[in-house]
Write a structure and sequence with these properties.
This protein is 29% helix and 16% strand. It is α/β, with parallel strands linked by helices and 569 residues long.
Length: 569
């Protein structure tokens, strides 16, 4: 594996609208991010992925872009963005932008011109397709529910549709059109030339379309449709030429770091998509989300407990192991509920669980991404009324639950557990009004526990989740072990259910990472461990919650939520 400038770095995702508001309008902004750069630097962050800040009508919270080469006034302007870049660089932090290239906003001038004149050049930037036998071109269901096809605005009487794999307000861009691709290269290069060092690439599998627009066999949702993701999976082997061209014309110019939002990753596709010759530098590990979302509606989503989560994570680690690719492990992002509330049993949905799960996650092979608030152990927010939700999909799912005959209370409970709004409630900075996020009215509900769960209270508490994350990051970068944590092999260790364990191994060091998520203490007999040689060289590098290593008896005892990182040789 070629060594790259971004290997061994710690990444952090900011969802700008909810991070920090500098001007009291209730929305986070770029100046707010600048004001917290010292905080991020102290934490150990070196790569900062910023979710979309481009001008947008915010139908899908900025993932519907109406101008790719500007900043939405809600967040600031290009001058503030340049300041963010330079202030970040001063602190050794590189900025990673979000690239949403499968679709734009229906408010983008391209789409407006296209709708105004179906023979315009811009009309060729979209998929404008005639109906088949008086019906829509095919039976695909969009990611947000309903058909991917809608009548073109202003042409409702005609038998012609546009494609949108996501919301109606997110028309799909036609990557078959070389002119559109040139426009895309220009906009990516615009940001590279400004000093951005990388990109997170949104929903990229959706860019390939079969131009005969066939139907697919109906899936399990019982509506005669098939999820658009099924079509993506079928067309996976056709995406290469587009992504190679994108890479050559843009990312390669400046040795950018790129991370793809790519589902359905297989052994074969890892090499193709990530790694030395891959389309991207790395891909997120979205495998737990894939298992959950293989069910059409929230109400059918399975409960994922620590063993299930670990199984997904371990399978991914092994999948990447023998390739030249790095994966990006995550516990949550702006599309998922809080990991502590999702992957842990109820008695660990707290600071103990946050430290336990953080220990498990931060030593995995790859480039770990921390999502804002994860480092203080933010849990799911209590949503008590339909008005508490913002996300378009949450609203769709409330409607579905009610349609299935559930009471409003039951519906709120189900949607509240699974909604991505959980990740989008404001970051909790202190115990003042609105958790110090804004002096105005926050755009989304503030988490109920802000008075004791916040950054300020954790900064000075040596035992806090925040300080635990700092120690984890420092250990990962520890001179003696950083090579092992960055490039060392991953090896799964199977112990009893609820005890999550693995090794990081290279020629120089063997490190055991072990976490107990059960309700009873767990005792591990080190003398049975394959890498344990003698007590003299064994060291407890870091522990969380109750964990004690007794080297006279070669025994490690982990309490409930106890976790440890042990250097065995
Ligand atoms: C990606 C984004 C998500 C967005 C969708 C459509 O999955 O992460 O937030 O809604 O793409 O752009």
């Amino acid at each position: 594996m070629e060594h790259k400038w971004w290997h061994g770095k710690i990444a952090y995702q900011i969802y700008p609208k909810s991070f920090c508001d500098s001007n009291g309008d209730g929305f986070g902004d770029l100046q707010g991010i600048i004001s917290k750069l010292d905080y991020l630097h102290d934490l150990g962050v070196e790569l900062l992925w910023i979710s979309p800040v481009y001008p947008s009508p915010f139908v899908d919270q900025g993932y519907d872009i109406s101008d790719y080469c500007n900043i939405d006034p809600v967040f600031g302007d290009l001058a503030t963005f340049d300041r963010l870049l330079s202030e970040a660089k001063k602190r050794n932090i590189e900025i990673i932008m979000d690239l949403v290239l499968n679709h734009c906003s229906s408010e983008h001038p391209w789409f407006k011109k296209a709708c105004a004149d179906l023979n315009s050049e811009e009309a060729g930037y979209f998929y404008f397709v005639k109906g088949k036998d008086g019906k829509k071109p095919n039976n695909l269901r969009s990611y947000f529910g309903g058909s991917v096809w809608d009548k073109i605005p202003g042409h409702e009487q005609e038998d012609i549709y546009y494609s949108h794999y996501f919301a109606k307000a997110q028309p799909d861009l036609n990557w078959n059109n070389p002119k559109l691709r040139e426009e895309i290269f220009k906009l990516v290069n615009f940001w590279i030339d400004r000093g951005v060092r990388g990109f997170r690439i949104d929903a990229i599998l959706s860019i390939v379309k079969d131009l005969s627009f066939p139907d697919l066999p109906a899936d399990s949702a019982n509506d005669g449709m098939s999820h658009a993701a099924n079509m993506n999976a079928k067309l996976l082997d056709r995406i290469g030429p587009y992504l190679n061209e994108l890479k050559e014309r843009t990312f390669n110019r400046a040795d950018c770091f790129t991370v793809g939002e790519v589902l359905t990753v297989t052994k074969e596709s890892v090499k193709e998509f990530a790694g030395d010759h891959g389309y991207f530098s790395t891909l997120f590990d979205l495998s737990p989300r894939e298992v959950i979302e293989s069910h059409p509606h929230y109400v059918e989503f399975p409960t994922m407990m620590p063993d299930d989560y670990a199984r997904c994570v371990f399978n991914t680690q092994e999948l990447y192991q023998n390739t030249d690719a790095f994966v990006a492990p995550i516990m949550e992002n702006h599309d998922e509920p809080r990991g502590v509330s999702y992957y842990l049993p109820d008695y660990l949905r707290n600071a103990t669980g946050a430290k336990c799960l953080g220990t498990f996650l931060m030593m995995l092979r790859g480039i770990p991404f921390i999502y804002q608030g994860q480092e203080i152990g933010m849990t799911n927010t209590e949503f008590t009324s339909p008005d508490d939700f913002d996300d378009l999909y949450a609203k769709e799912e409330i409607r579905y639950c009610l349609e299935c005959g559930m009471s409003i209370e039951e519906s709120l409970k189900i949607v509240g557990r699974h909604t991505r709004d959980n990740a989008r409630t404001p970051v909790l900075w202190d115990d003042s009004a609105n958790a110090g996020f804004t002096t105005g009215k926050p755009w989304l509900k503030v988490h109920q526990d802000y008075q004791h769960l916040n950054v300020k209270s954790q900064l000075n508490d040596p035992d806090s989740v925040l300080n635990h994350y700092k120690k984890l990051i420092a250990l990962r970068k520890d001179e003696a072990l950083s090579e092992t944590f960055t490039y060392g092999k991953f090896e799964r260790l199977t112990l009893q259910s609820g005890v999550l364990a693995y090794y990081r191994v290279d020629d120089h060091h063997k490190v055991l990472i072990i976490a107990n998520t059960n309700t009873t203490p767990y005792s591990y007999d080190l003398s049975q461990d394959k890498y344990f040689k003698d007590s003299e060289h064994t060291q407890l590098k870091l522990s969380a919650n109750e964990a004690s290593l007794n080297l006279e008896q070669n025994n490690l005892v982990l309490g409930v939520g106890g976790a440890a990182i042990i250097q065995l040789s």
